Amino acid sequence: MKFTIILTFFFVIPFALCDLKVGFYSSSCPRAEDIVRQVVQRNFNRDRSITGGLLRMHFHDCFVRGCDASILIDSTRNNSSEKDAGANQTVRGFEIIDEAKRGLEKACAATVSCADIIALATRDSVAMAGGPRYSVPTGRRDGLISNPSDTSILPGPGSTVSQALQAFTQTGFTLNEMVTLLGAHTVGFAHCNFFQSRLNDPNMDPSLRAKLTQICNGGGNNPKAFLDQNTSLVFDNQFYNQILLKRGVLFIDQQLALDPSSKGLVTSFAGNAASFQSSFVNAIVKMGNIGVLEGNNGEIRNNCRVFNTPSKA
User: Fold this and answer.
1) Domain extent for 257
2) Would residue 294 count as lying in a domain?
3) pTM recorded for the entire structure
4) I want to staple 156 with a disulfide (CB 3.0 to 4.6 A). Which of 6, 23, 240, 299 is the partner?
């Protein structure tokens, strides 16, 4: 989960008083969760970094319009979508959602939403990376709007703790939950353009600065670096230990360990893996409830990249 633009303004996405429930598809599509899990497993076996990609997709989807899969819509000649906004230019994992959707349409057509696929795929990838196993309530429906300007709510990699917290509190989250969710950076990576400007930051460990400088000056098209330089592909609490050692790659990550309001939480999670994982489960499930569409609202897309009904982008 990597943030990619500077925060400019905020709007409120209320939490729905929702009827999501675990096992929502137990009668209508009994193999739904198995189908998603199998697709994620095949892709994880080829690329273990997909956990970070799916976490970031889930976050960017839910925080913008609520968890309605609006991030999946492709732009058309007449309308741009969220996917083309600056914040989402390097979001990845769309092909995994597409593959799962194709399997689900064969098993039970027009039944499982793309929004639920994102939530389930993220859950499964976290477990595969060594993180906690948790239940995901399902029953979301897919949105009918995807507007790139709506992504302005996402905090950027250069945000301070107070700036990032304003975005989180506007969506109903506490400081503890923000620090928890940013801990998902334990399996993420960032491209050089998101951290190159702070390679002279005195609050960066010199050995990390040298490594990142070498990566970014080594050629290639906008190279990338893992945000957790210790256990880069394992979902654990080592991200917090790294930023306490001034080995945070993104400015916002390092600020979590420097700002007095968040440093205590970072220290606590760094020393207690079980506490972090428990807090993460609560926070990610809560995030999956933001602004969900249910009942007759929205639709169940046939293709996650395209609205069934005329676009309102």
Assistant:
1) 161-284
2) no
3) 0.92
4) 6
